[in-house]
Specification:
The protein is an alpha+beta fold. 43% of the residues lie in helices and 20% in strands.
Length: 200
């Protein structure tokens, strides 16, 4: 049976935030941004809420009909050279004393490819009890199918070796040097996917 996917709206905001928070509590990058377990428990949901609000306003969130998985996408123009105060604003809203909230946004923005319009998979989350069922793959493939039809590339940053392998299976390739977060932080892999030619 196929996975039913719909676009999330404002009424789904809390569900999306809870999904992201649960899925990324143990993620290496989230652990770097909020090194203390208690700090992460209390402040991580605010960061996920900030990301959700940004994408609800300017992008698209796909949600499985049963609410067990979501994907946050942004359509990026070819020439996005505007100076972005977003990372500083997110830090101010979420945790003003935590420089890493802003640093992660600035570092990922610095490695983001420019010059070609593309779809950007900002985040994807599957409820911890539902991982391994193919829900994340279904969410990604629904957008990649459209990318292929419209001859549009796609981009993401993998935040773990496990997720990198999944993205490679879906046609993504390493798109530049690995981003090693400072102060012995984890690695992030920038990954790019050219549109595939579909056979008739």
């Amino acid at each position: 049976m196929g996975v039913v996917i719909r676009a999330a709206g404002e009424g789904d905001r809390e569900l999306v935030v809870r999904l992201l928070d649960a899925a990324f509590q143990d993620d290496p990058v989230s652990g770097w941004v909020f090194p203390g377990a208690e700090d992460r428990r209390t402040k991580h949901p605010g960061l996920m809420a900030a990301f959700t609000d940004i994408v609800l306003a300017a992008g698209r969130i796909d949600l499985t009909e049963d609410g067990s998985a979501c994907a946050l996408w942004m359509s990026m123009p070819a020439d996005d050279d505007a100076e972005d105060d977003g990372p500083a604003q997110v830090r101010q809203a979420v945790d003003p004393d935590n420089e890493r909230v802003e640093t992660i946004g600035r570092l990922t923005a610095a490695i983001h490819p420019s010059g070609r319009a593309h779809e950007y998979l900002w985040m994807i989350a599957v409820a911890p009890g539902r991982q391994g069922e193919g829900l994340g793959t279904a969410l990604i493939e629904s957008v990649l199918d459209r990318c292929d039809r419209e001859r549009q590339p796609a981009y993401l940053e993998a935040s773990s070796a496990r997720s990198r392998k999944l993205y490679e299976r879906l046609g993504f390739e390493l798109a530049g040097p690995v981003l090693d977060l400072p102060e012995n932080g984890p690695a992030m892999w920038p990954m790019w996917r050219e549109p595939r030619t579909r056979k008739a």
